[in-house]
Every structure is written in C-alpha cells, then in structure tokens.
Amino acid sequence: MKTRIKEQRIKIGMSQDQLAEKSGVARTIISQLETGQRTVTTTETMLKIARALDCSVADIFLLE
Asked: Residues 44-58: what's their mean pLDDT?
C-alpha cells in the first residue's frame, strides 16, 4: 500500500511528531507508512491519520 501521508503532512507544515501527537498514532508507524516499510494497517489507524491531516482517507491513498 502506497500512501500520500508524507505529501499531505508536508503540505500543511506538520512534522511526523506533530502528526503522531494529533492522531494518536505512533510516530514509528507513521514513518513506516510513509516509507513503505509497513504495507498493512488498520482502517482505524488510517482514519486517525486522515482526521489529523484534515483530509479523507481517499486523499492519502496513491491510485496507480
């Protein structure tokens, strides 16, 4: 699973630490999702990240 988490995060000027704090998702998980090291996660995690980034889950998925 490839995501646009990093692009969305940078677009709003947020660090990984800030996103972790706001979303309640561990920074290591965010980092792994951004780099592709983690390819599976829960819907709940993606919803938390999307809410913290003020976007929809669909906005953070890469469509290939």
From this structure: 95
